[in-house]
Specification:
Blueprint lengths: L1 H6 L3 H14 L4 H13 L3 H14 L5 H17 L2
Helix pairs in contact: 2-3, 3-4, 4-5
GO biological process, one term: protein O-linked glycosylation via mannose
InterPro entries: TMTC_O-mannosyltransferase, TPR-like_helical_dom_sf
Pfam families: TPR_19
Length: 82
């Protein structure tokens, strides 16, 4: 359902849905990443960073997520400096 909502550009709804699902399955790496991605698409950068960090805590060996965290940090800086 989250994928469907995101594909329809209903990012806020998708983010809320993924967040609820990820909270119900706190050790599910894929759901944490999906929640983070949906948060990023919904321009909820602080929440996205929190979920990316959660994903890293579940699977620390997935280094690609570190790039997303740095990217979000840059986005937040640019977003709040506009």
């Amino acid at each position: 359902m989250g994928e469907f909502l995101a594909s329809r550009r209903r990012y806020k709804e998708a983010a809320n849905l993924y967040e609820k699902a990820a909270e119900l399955r706190p050790e599910d790496h894929e759901l944490a990443v999906a929640a983070a991605t949906a948060m990023r698409q919904a321009v909820r950068y602080q929440d996205a960073e929190r979920w990316y960090r959660k994903a890293v805590s579940i699977k620390p060996t997935v280094s690609k997520i570190d790039n997303f965290i740095r990217y979000l940090h840059d986005l937040k800086l640019n977003h709040f400096n506009i």
